[in-house]
Task: structure prediction
Amino acid sequence: MTRFGRRDETLPDLMAEAALSALADAMIEEPDGLVVAAMNPEEFTGAGNYGSLINTHLGLSHVPALRVETATSSGVAAVYSAFASIASGLHKTVLVVGGEKMSHMPTPRVSEIIGRSIDPHERSYGTTMPALAGLITRAAMQRRGLTLKEISQVAVKNHANGARNPLAHFQEAVTLEAVMDSRLVADPLRLFHCCPISDGAAAIVMTAEPAEVRIAGIGQGTDTIAMRYRNDLTAFVATQTAAQVAYRMAGFGPERVEVAEIHDAFTPFEIISLEDTGLIPPGKAGRATLEGETALDGRLPINTSGGLKARGHPLAGTGIAQLVELCWQLRGMAAGRQVQARVGLAQSIGGLATNNWVTLLEARR
Amino acid sequence: MIVHTLPASRCPRCHRLVVPPARLCPDHPVTMEAATVPNVGEVVSFTTLHSPPEGFKAPLHIALVELDGGARLFCHGEETRGIKIGSSVGVESVDHVFYFSHMGFADRARLFWRRAGASGEKVASITKSVVQGIWRGRSRGDS
Result:
């Protein structure tokens, strides 16, 4: 993967940087399939037909290429597509690359483009991702006892991890006071509870041959695009479904997971998602975070990369970057932030939890 | 505030109510029926956006309200002072945009009696169907 943050390169160049390093790492010159993930490249970069744009840019114009999109979880959707094509025998080796380039645009414009993944009727009320996350956070505080300190500690922890990741967007620690005193964005959410606008790309090579890390399970879960159609704001059904599917495929449950990358686009989502995936029992994830259980040296390290909060969130690049981090952790290549783990879990949220994924990776050793 | 109704749709299969009206139920691929819902309910959650998207003025107050009967809808409001999760609010539609407002004491009292009336009718209808069931059971037993 590339370094995430403000980048001057074009999106095809960022994707090429990530793809070439993944191919070199896998010692493969040419895959027999390519899957590209990009959420809104037409709006952000003015270019479309991204499958063909990227295969040509990579010198792989003869390799069959697809573009896959499920909003902010597009990267994992692309991995799923590659997984299915390999499992079915259609392809032997598939390159998956995803990314986004958006920091060159003014923030209100970026928010508006990302907001197009919201139900159009609800969007006509001025709802943005932070607005919906604000509604969810307030409801979770009232109904589940989530506290401002708990959601702020997630930011402190993830920034501390990002400070150890040379590819992270933010590589400095923040204090609990700085998070809790940052400006209000969507009451009760403050600026430091929200992930940044990042450029970047990530890539992985998937193969039918035995490799150091295998996908033990991958699951998708969906929910209504309209928030007003949901009965409960404080848990994500799409994550719960995705987790059940992934655990069933893997043949094991959350008890074997030793490290996880969680979609903390807004810090309360990390706490909600830890419970939705079954990694921490209901109602306990906030306290576990305050007690350091999810820190780098805790019982269950969460977002060792820094998460979306500190590593950054180039939309369609994020789900793949989560899997890259887990691969590095499982292969002992996460210098400066290495944890001991054989099984890792990644959870990716598409839209406002409309199309979510859970992936389980296992080291073969 | 006078209690009146808002246009909605009801799924003939699961009886889910949605506002504004929609053609198909989100959970079943079946055509929904026209329905109405009262314009009063409770705040599910709310937020204030300090940097709203283009076309909206800050601060932008947004609430998700659950109307009596279960349909939920998004609304704008003049302010959120005094509003809590669970607060009773009235919803008005102005030029197809919903606005919530805190209900005053008189509104809440009127609503209380209206709800009591509705549940009273429900009790009466349940009693009626139980009596009918017993009657039918007896007539079957006789034959």
About this structure: The radius of gyration of chain B is 20 Å. Chain B is about 25% helix and 35% strand.
